[in-house]
Prior knowledge:
By secondary structure, the protein is an alpha/beta fold. 33% of the residues lie in helices and 21% in strands. The protein has one domain: Flavodoxin domain (Rossmann fold), CATH 3.40.50. Strands 2-1-3-4-5 form a five-stranded parallel β-sheet, with helices on both faces. It is globular and about 40 Å long.
Amino acid sequence: MICLGDLMKIVYDSLTGKTKHFASQLGFPVIDIQDCLDSNVQGPLFLVTRNAGYGEVPESTLTFMRKHYRKVIGIAVSSNRNWGHYYGAAGDTLQRIYKIRLVVKFDGQGTESDVEITRNFISKHS
């Protein structure tokens, strides 16, 4: 069981390490989404995820959200601008389904500005 009390936690879904890197820059405890799929994690949570395929939500993120979406205060999504219309579409889908704010779409590991925008959002909403 994962339990860090009522402290903000960043849950990341990473395939290549880019979302893990982004999550680790936010200044809060980070948890790999794989550690949350069969466990209970207390909120509040901020989700850093990624696109899968053509802007699809990774199955691991969908499984996590089905169980924990009520604890998630916001979402950031890693993508690649070369995907055009599909850039960050996983985040758009999650925002639409769960009515949770998509705070930022970031390319690769994100920029300092992406990190700052996300950090400010978390500070105001935690």
